Amino acid sequence: MIQEHRRKQLLELMTERGWDSILLYGNAWRKDPFRSLVNINFSGDHALARLSRSGEISVTFSDPWDAENASARLEPEFSRAFAGGASAIAGLEFMEERFVAACGQLPVSATADVEELRRVKTAEEIGYIKQACDLADRGYQRFVEVAEPGMREFELVAEVEAFLKENGAEDNFMLIASGGTEVVGMKPPTDRKFQKGDSITTELTPQVNGYYAQICRTLVLGEPSPDQLKAFGIFSEAQCAAQDLIKPGITAAAAARAQNDVFRKNGYGDYTGAKYTRVRGHCLGLYPDETPHILEDVDYVLKQDMVVIAHPNTYLPLSGYMVFGDTLLITENGNTRLNKTEKKLFTK
Amino acid sequence: MKRGLITWDKAELPPSVFEARLTRARAALAKHALPALLVYSDVWRSNEGRHLTNYMPYWNRSLIVIPRDQPPVLLCGLSPRVYPWIKSVTIFEEIRPASKLVPTLLQLCTERGWTKLGVLHLQRLTHEIYAPLSESAVSLYGIQLELTDDAEIAVHRRAEQMAQEILTAELPKGAGLTDYQFSGLLERAFRRAGAEDLVLLFSTGDSAPRPARGTMLGGKYSVAVALEYRGHWARVTRGLPL
């Protein structure tokens, strides 16, 4: 459960910055700073790991079941876990102010430093992400198998969620939308019933041993219209442009530009901005939406062993909101697509 | 993130329920001569905001502002593309995009001439919001509110009933399965019944309940279900043999 490579990295960081101790905080939403050092899937509200310069780690939970299962300290009044303070905290921004106040002197934020350490994955971490990718592929297969006219959005999500959990997913980030050109984005499922001709979009993001992988695909119920096919051609070319480009040394901005240029070339450049889309991809790891985001104003230089998804997901008047993307592992000279699902517009 | 059915059933929670809740919040503001109430909400800490407005950020975080004499305003980290859906399941008529929450809040304070704000659970604001706000020209005052009423209790009862009925019916089906397999079965049953969110913990007696990890359940086990229905949580634990 202790991520030994991370302990080593953090001790080096502490020496470099002159920090005597570092805290890694996690809560029910943002478990990732904590799990980056102590990879326990806790179920209570709060968890804290304290790493001292000697390398010693102490762990505190707010929930008695978490504490018992991990043989760790229990602190129901969680402010007390911060007594004595620390030099730095990863996850400081997500902490309730009462916890920060309990530290005494305000620690510096180590969030950005720790996120940078997390971006380049170890072989073990890549192994978990590959497992999550396999689950995402199988989950999407299940999605296609069960979707049918008359089914409601939330019923489809229930089926996919059941499949992912049955097969070992800890959690899953999933958005969905269905309909035609009126659909401008994805959200949690509604009780809308699928109809013939619908485009059903989804992002599936299962988590295995803490690590997320993602797949984005679009399914048309029935024969796709010429406009849906034309739209998919643009999305496919854009995703391929990013996949062909991504390698160590390429910036996130270049990966975004490669995708957006395909839309511009086809006369749809207006649909690459914030009004119609969010990002052209992002990193994956212990959080499903890790930075850097793939955007034209992000100059972060991509590195070997980072894991990213390139997805030109956006609204187009041809098709409504459409999604298409795969998880990519950046290798020495390029990247490897970790998803095995066919790269096509799915139909049923 | 939340990926169950999020909706607003107006037969279950009529608009008048939210009007009464806002009236109580505004009375607290009047008592302290404050112009508006600030409520923090994120994907995991949404109960107070949900109680007052039926809004729950299925992802990301938001600030809810309840002026003393104007309609509530949502400062939202989510894309404007989902605002029509948010409006369909909440009482909000005004939603402002707020990828940076505090500057958007301070802009609203400037527009409305507010120099002070009441904050529900002031010391529970996240540091990224508390720190810049406390250094701004706007003074912050902690406000306590009674967040329980008959409607709230009735939906909690419905959540508890759903958790109990489904778990009791499904519990024997776990025998001989792994906790992964059984969690899939439970996810399907609960989410198809309308659960918004679900936390499942399992024990075979040799540990405290914990998330599934591939353990064979055999014929003796317990399951703790924390279920969220329409923003209301209930927790039920049952063991086999019953």
How would you portray this structure in words?
The complex is a heterodimer of chains A (348) and B (242). With 348 residues, chain A is α+β, with helices and mostly antiparallel strands. Chain A has 2 domains: 4-118, Creatinase/prolidase N-terminal domain (Creatine Amidinohydrolase, Chain A, domain 1, 3-Layer(aba) Sandwich), CATH 3.40.350.10; 123-347, Creatine Amidinohydrolase, CATH 3.90.230.10. In chain A, 32% of the residues lie in helices and 22% in strands. Chain A is built from 9 helices and 17 strands. Chain A has helices at residues 4-17, 32-35, 64-70, 97-102, 111-119, 123-146, 153-166, 226-245, 252-265; strands at residues 21-27, 46-52, 57-61, 73-74, 88-90, 108-109, 171-179, 199-208, 211-212, 215-220, 281-283, 307-310, 314-316, 320-322, 325-330, 335-337, 346-347. In chain A, strands 7, 8, 9, 10, 11, 12, 15, 16 and 17 form a 9-stranded mixed sheet that branches. In chain A, strand 8 and strand 9 form a beta hairpin. Chain A is globular, with a radius of gyration of 21 Å. Chain A starts with a helix and ends with a strand. The model of chain A has no long low-confidence stretch (mean pLDDT 97). With 242 residues, chain B is α/β, with parallel strands linked by helices. Chain B has 2 domains: 15-143, Creatinase/prolidase N-terminal domain (Creatine Amidinohydrolase, Chain A, domain 1), CATH 3.40.350; 152-240, Alpha-Beta Complex (Creatine Amidinohydrolase), CATH 3.90.230. Chain B contains 7 helices and 9 strands, in the order H-E-H-E-E-H-E-H-E-H-E-H-H-E-E-E. Chain B has helices at 15-31, 47-53, 83-89, 101-112, 127-134, 150-170, 179-192; strands at residues 36-42, 61-67, 73-76, 94-97, 116-120, 139-143, 197-203, 221-229, 232-240. A 6-stranded mixed sheet of chain B has the order 4-3-2-1-5-6, with helices on both faces. A 3-stranded antiparallel sheet of chain B has the order 7-8-9, covered by helices on one side. The model of chain B has no long low-confidence stretch (mean pLDDT 96). Classes of the chains: A alpha+beta (348), B alpha/beta (242). The interface between A and B is large, with 50 and 46 residues.
